[in-house]
Automatic annotation (TrEMBL):
Keywords: DNA-binding, Transcription, Transcription regulation. InterPro entries: Cro/C1-type_HTH, Cupin_2, Lambda_DNA-bd_dom_sf, RmlC-like_jellyroll, RmlC_Cupin_sf, TransReg_Diox_bact_type. It comes from the Bacteria. Coiled coil: none annotated. The keyword NAD does not apply. PANTHER family: HTH-TYPE TRANSCRIPTIONAL REGULATOR, HTH-TYPE TRANSCRIPTIONAL REGULATOR SUTR. Pfam families: Cupin_2, HTH_3. This is Helix-turn-helix transcriptional regulator. Residues 24-78 form the HTH cro/C1-type domain. PROSITE patterns: HTH_CROC1.
Amino acid sequence: MNKKVNITTGTDASKINEALSASLKQYRSQKKMSLDELSRLAGVSKGMLVEIEACRANPSIAILCKLAAAMGVSVADIVNVASKPNAHLIAAGDIPCLWSGENGGTARLLAGTSGPDMIELWEWKMHPGEIFDSPGHSDGTCELLHVVQGSLLLTLGEERLIVSEGSSVIARTDLPHSYSCHEGGPLKFTMTVSERVR
C-alpha cells in the first residue's frame, strides 16, 4: 500500500515545486494575503505552505487540488500544462508526473484547461499493492475513467466497483475515493476530471 501520495522525485518534482512556489508567492502578493489567511482558505497548514514556498516540500495531489481551488485556478495552471488560447502543445518531456507509487506506478497530468472550471486528462499506471486515496473533490466533480490494461478497483465511499480491461466508468468523486490495481498484473487507465472550483 502506498502510504505517501507525493509528487515524484527528480526533475518533475523540482519543476513542479518551483512552479507551485512561484504561483503561491504571486497569488499572495496580488491578493496581499498572509500565509495564515491562505492556510485557512485552502485548509493546508501554514507549515506546509512555508515549505512549499521555499521549494522544500513535495505536496500531494490532494494538497495541489486544495491550493488550486483556493486560488481559483486549476492544477494544470500550476504545473504549466493548461490550455492557452486556440491551442497549446505539450511536449512529451513537459508532461508532469504528479504521483509515484512505491512499486513504480505513476500518475501523469497530460493536459488540462485553466481554472476555475476545469477539465483534466490523466494517465495512470499502477502495480499490485499500490493504492491512491483521495479525500474527495469539490461538489459536483465528475471523473470518466477507461481501463486500457488490467483491472481497476474503484472505491467511492462504501461502494466498490471493479472496472475490467476495456471498460469505462463515470463516477462522482466529491466524496472520498480510491484507485487500486485489482488482481495481479499492471493496471493502466486514462481519466478525465471535470471540476468546478468554488
